[in-house]
Design a protein that fits this description.
2 domains; 8 helices; mainly alpha; single chain
Length: 147
Amino acid sequence: MARKRNPEKHDYAHLLFMTGASQKEIAQKVATTEATVSKWVREGGWEAKRAAATISPEQVSTKLLLRLNSMLEEGTDFDPAAFAKIAKQLKSFKTGVGVDDLIYTFMMFGSWLEKEAIVDKDITIELIRTITNLQDRFILSKRNEAE
């Protein structure tokens, strides 16, 4: 029979992961195994969330534009297929809302909720936890649709 997950440990592990802690550190601090932390990271899509928290959509767009510019300036060994691929990525990035966009937006919303909770007694830890869990489920469903 599978053991029931401890929500406090899981939430604390998630917070530690989002602040850059290694899985080994998290396992030690949360008093669980590295295998359990690895499972949480994988099943919860934590890597994508952490990446979205560290790079904004604007930064990605800027990097793609700089790469296109660099390809144009190099000129001598111009690869039209590579250029077209990056241009297509940029176009889809600019027009579509992807999972990374959702993660970034939800992260910003979560930060806002935490700040608002200080002054608004109706925003409780339980409410934030419920919203975060629903956001996580939504992101996982979108990731599954994309695969």
